[in-house]
């Protein structure tokens, strides 16, 4: 009997109510650990006799892979695999899959919500009114403004679709260039420096890779308009957080909305800034996206147990998101 370990937050686990039941219906044993409450030491102990590991944000690094003597399959309960040492896993003969695109609409909704919140200072005005201050905040219309997308994968395309409904001009930068979708959505591809110089709003949705680590550094932040607003719903490490704090403090850019941070939870150096909107990495946290991922996860476990080809297999450096 295959043994499956699932480490997700209790919130995500409750949103995927049939995951354990579906795994057990496949004839496997399923152990769930709340990722918020399990220590690294406990995880390294539990992983020793596991065949299949389903994880969210926990690190499946060399240490964990070496500790997992029986491990044959790692499943990312989501899209981004930057927390998995895919190359080492493949070297060890361990299969890796993810669930690309399943949370794209959820993340795009949040991104555009943050864009609107930044354009009209909605959180700041809400806080002022609730604290007894009748504050009138001047904002910006989206009609005719330029949105620069860093990343044009499934999430980037959905953000573009929402922006087109607001009559925004849309530019995009990234290694993945879907010219057909760009034409349909009236998106123009551009070099990064050009995009940063011309955009009123910059939204980051690219995956975290060695070449995107600190992509938005001091030099690149300086290329943005001082009236521009930056949104990050990708990974915190894509932005040099110290450089961003400096740019915000010195008002080199108008503001930022961040769902992800270099360290989570983030420090007060970021969250205390008046021109920053913060959310707690909730981009994919919708009932709909979790249940789609639940379906793909349980189906792939069934394929693995039945020695059938897996879907969404990840090779080193080539994950779909």
UniProtKB/TrEMBL annotation:
<dbReference type="InterPro" id="IPR036291">
    <property type="entry name" value="NAD(P)-bd_dom_sf"/>
</dbReference>
<dbReference type="InterPro" id="IPR029753">
    <property type="entry name" value="D-isomer_DH_CS"/>
</dbReference>
<feature type="domain" description="D-isomer specific 2-hydroxyacid dehydrogenase catalytic">
    <location>
        <begin position="26"/>
        <end position="314"/>
    </location>
</feature>
<dbReference type="InterPro" id="IPR006140">
    <property type="entry name" value="D-isomer_DH_NAD-bd"/>
</dbReference>
<dbReference type="GO" id="GO:0051287">
    <property type="term" value="F:NAD binding"/>
</dbReference>
<comment type="similarity">
    <text>Belongs to the D-isomer specific 2-hydroxyacid dehydrogenase family.</text>
</comment>
<feature type="domain" description="D-isomer specific 2-hydroxyacid dehydrogenase NAD-binding">
    <location>
        <begin position="112"/>
        <end position="283"/>
    </location>
</feature>
<keyword id="KW-0520">NAD</keyword>
<protein>
    <submittedName>
        <fullName>Glycerate dehydrogenase</fullName>
    </submittedName>
</protein>
<dbReference type="InterPro" id="IPR006139">
    <property type="entry name" value="D-isomer_2_OHA_DH_cat_dom"/>
</dbReference>
<dbReference type="Pfam" id="PF00389">
    <property type="entry name" value="2-Hacid_dh"/>
</dbReference>
<dbReference type="Pfam" id="PF02826">
    <property type="entry name" value="2-Hacid_dh_C"/>
</dbReference>
<dbReference type="GO" id="GO:0016616">
    <property type="term" value="F:oxidoreductase activity, acting on the CH-OH group of donors, NAD or NADP as acceptor"/>
</dbReference>
<dbReference type="InterPro" id="IPR050857">
    <property type="entry name" value="D-2-hydroxyacid_DH"/>
</dbReference>
<keyword id="KW-0560">Oxidoreductase</keyword>
């Amino acid at each position: 009997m295959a043994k499956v370990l699932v480490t997700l937050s209790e919130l995500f686990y409750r949103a995927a109510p049939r995951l354990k039941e579906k795994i057990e219906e496949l004839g496997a044993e399923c152990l769930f650990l709340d990722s918020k409450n399990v220590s690294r030491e406990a995880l390294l102990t539990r992983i020793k006799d596991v065949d299949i590991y389903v994880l969210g944000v926990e690190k499946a690094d060399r240490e964990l892979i070496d500790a997992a003597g029986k491990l044959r399959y790692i499943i990312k309960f989501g899209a981004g695999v930057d927390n998995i040492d895919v190359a080492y896993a493949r070297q060890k003969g361990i299969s890796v899959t993810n669930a690309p695109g399943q949370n794209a609409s959820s993340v795009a909704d949040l991104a555009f919500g943050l864009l609107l919140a930044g354009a009209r200072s909605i959180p700041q005005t809400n806080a002022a009114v609730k604290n007894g201050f009748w504050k009138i905040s001047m904002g910006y219309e989206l009609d005719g403004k330029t949105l620069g997308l860093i990343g044009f994968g499934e999430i980037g395309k959905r953000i573009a679709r929402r922006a087109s409904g607001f009559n925004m001009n849309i530019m995009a930068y990234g290694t993945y260039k879907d010219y057909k979708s760009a034409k349909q959505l009236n998106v123009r591809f551009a070099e990064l420096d050009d995009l940063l110089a011309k955009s009123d709003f910059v939204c980051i949705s690219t995956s975290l890779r060695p070449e995107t680590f600190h992509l938005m550094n001091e030099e690149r932040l300086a290329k943005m308009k001082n009236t521009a607003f930056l949104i990050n719903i990708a990974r915190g490490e894509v932005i040099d957080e110290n450089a961003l704090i400096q740019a915000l403090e010195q008002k080199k850019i108008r503001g930022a909305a961040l769902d992800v941070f270099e360290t989570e939870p983030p420090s007060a150096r970021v969250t205390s800034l008046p021109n920053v909107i913060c959310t707690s990495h909730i981009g994919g946290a919708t009932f709909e996206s979790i249940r789609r991922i639940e379906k793909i996860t349980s189906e792939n476990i069934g394929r693995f147990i039945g020695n059938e080809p897996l879907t969404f297999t990840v090779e080193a450096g080539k994950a779909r998101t």
